[in-house]
Amino acid sequence: MKVLQNAGIVFTVKDGKWQHYSLQKRFVQEFKQNTDQLLAADEHCLCQRSDCEKDVAN
């Protein structure tokens, strides 16, 4: 949890001997924006290009 806190993903509130963790609102907003952008299909998306091979396993 300390790594997530240091990365700015969660914040802590100390309550006696307990630590309560919550997600940073800024992180949640940025994560959603980045995910939406990543999953958006547009003319620049590799999956939409006609010269792209569908089967890359060959």
From TrEMBL:
It comes from the Bacteria. Gene3D superfamilies: Winged helix-like DNA-binding domain superfamily/Winged helix DNA-binding domain. InterPro entries: WH-like_DNA-bd_sf. This is HTH arsR-type domain-containing protein. It comes from Loigolactobacillus bifermentans DSM 20003.
